[in-house]
Amino acid sequence: MAAPLHGTNEGTNEPRPNPFGNYSLLEAQQPKAVGSSAAVRESPFANYSFKEAQQNDACPSPTSTGAANEGVPEAHMDADTRTVFVQAADSVSGGSMHSRLESDTHQHYGMGAEMGSSYSQQSGVAMSIEQYAIRTLYEEFRDRAAAKIETIVELRLDREPNLAKHLGHGADATFDRTLEKLGMLARRRPRVIIELLLVWRKTTIDAADEDPLESIGGAHDPQQHQAAALSRAHYIVRERKSLVSVYILCRALDAVVAQLDASHLEGDLGDRLEELVFGQVKQVNPANLRRSQNRREIQDLYARMIGRISGIRFSSMSDRFIAELERIPMVSSSSDERIVELLHNMRFIRLRVYPIDALEESAAFLLSCAKFYSRTSGSLRLKHAWASLLTELLMPMAAVVDAEVNLPELVQAIDIIYAKAMKMAAKVRHVTVAFPLAAATLCVSRRDIFHQRWLSLLEYCIQRLKDKQFRRVSMDAILRMLWVYLFRYPESTAVVLRRIDSLSRIFFPATKLHAWPKTVPPAAFVYFLVCAACYSFDFASRQLLQNMLQVDSGWPGTSRDIGDAGPILDTLNPARV
């Protein structure tokens, strides 16, 4: 079915280069791919001994005499958090835990109270440990989050702090590990962990609903000015706490969702999580995002979560976006702003080509997007947003498609997108987004369609290499189409080698010592040579490199003997390499 991400060169075991691993081959503009880490994380509970847990000296019960002073007093636990813990206990103990909690007289949360009688049963031991782990890890998260909030609140109030610097991935390795442990524990109890995170967010200080500037305007005496300044400072503190808590919640939910699969998000839990994340995306005010970089960072975190959830529940999540696009009337600039922001949040959605059900869902979603794109007119920003989104959706698919390109819905979507992209490519103001999109559509087209259309787009790109502002996107489109031409839809060997030779003469003119155009990064020319060498190493080494070094008949083994290397070195131009 689907071709591997990296093919192998015929006759060797060397992998062929694939330009679709990252969206931008020449510029690192593609956001990080959404998905779980390749490294296998070790569970923090891997070395936990159930046998030792039965011994009070080794691991006392959280509510036993030895651990009573170490627990969290029930008076210090808010009602919502307590309710979730009760539900967690009920879910693993058949409801009997609730009555024990209500009768707990020690004023400590009795997650493991009166479980001694059940220690003789294996299930009782396992469940008490699970409950203890949830409680302990939640307390660790709560304490570390509180410390983060206080640290950021203490920063200068006249400057907006960079939340990504203080709370982003890699800023604090200890906090990152805490979030990872939350995610791994969510594999066992996803509902409990997610509800605890939402309860934690609910108990933090939210931003003031009204702008204090309205209430302090018109003050004239010093006392009123001082009161106004204090009110403004109080508002800034509350606003900052709210943003920090939302940022931490997004990071925690992202770590949790990264560890889940379809079995964890079935039923109402998946629906609630979708409603939570999509609601934030749908209701965002674009003006607020322009004024605050932190709000933009938070919105990007929500977008990444959408990408993760769509990998598990693609159909329902994609349907929400299509339904919202249909509800927004395209009649004003404010509507355009909302649509552009909605498209910005769709860029992490990943189309899947297998199994066949997932391919059909992806094709149906892409066809709906193609129809919206074809009806777009007037707004330059809206056209570019659609073109950029479709390019990012198609590029990962282009790396793996094979026979899937024959699906009728996918063929129809590609035809609609290609027609609109080529129409935009004819206008200079659209070249930067139209060339990548047109190349992406050809890379997921059928063989006959690709050979019918790619040469015309190739000529467009070669012509635009003369324009400094379009060289990068033109070279990017050429290399992507070249990879498909060489390794997916090749013609006869003689024809292919002629194409490679003609492109090499354009990229490395014999009359110039340096590669042309100069503004294109060297990596692009290196990639062209790698592709050519993977297809035919003999041709690349004897023809392309010889022409680059301006060696006519001085290649060792041809008309000159290897012992005559001295005169050959005099004619080489290493600056061209």
Keywords:
577 residues; mainly alpha; 24 helices; 61% helix
Give the gist of this structure.
The protein is mainly α and 577 residues long.
What is the C-alpha radius of gyration, as a whole number of Å?
A: 30 Å
Mean pLDDT: 77
Query: How far apart are the first and last residues' alpha carbons, in Å?
Result: 39 Å
Instruction: Tell me the β content.
Output: under 5%
| Total beta-strand segments | 0
- Total number of helical segments? 24
Largest sheet: none
Structural class: mainly alpha
Classify the helix fraction into a percent range. 55-70%
- Low-confidence segments: 1-6, 25-76, 91-126, 207-220, 553-570
Global geometry: elongated
SSE order, one letter for each helix or strand: HHHHHHHHHHHHHHHHHHHHHHHH
Describe this structure in words.
- There is one protein chain.
- By secondary structure, the chain is an all-alpha fold.
- Helix content is 61%, strand content 0%.
- It contains 24 helices and no strands.
- It has helices at 50-53, 79-93, 96-102, 122-153, 163-167, 173-185, 190-203, 212-216, 222-257, 268-282, 286-291, 293-312, 314-327, 333-345, 356-374, 380-398, 408-425, 431-443, 447-464, 471-487, 493-507, 522-535, 537-548, 565-571.
- The longest helix is centred in the middle third of the chain and has 36 residues, at 222-257.
- Mean pLDDT is 77; it is low at 1-6, 25-76, 91-126, 207-220 and 553-570.
Helix and strand arrangement:
Elements lengths: L49 H4 L25 H15 L2 H7 L19 H32 L9 H5 L5 H13 L4 H14 L8 H5 L5 H36 L10 H15 L3 H6 L1 H20 L1 H14 L5 H13 L10 H19 L5 H19 L9 H18 L5 H13 L3 H18 L6 H17 L5 H15 L14 H14 L1 H12 L16 H7 L6
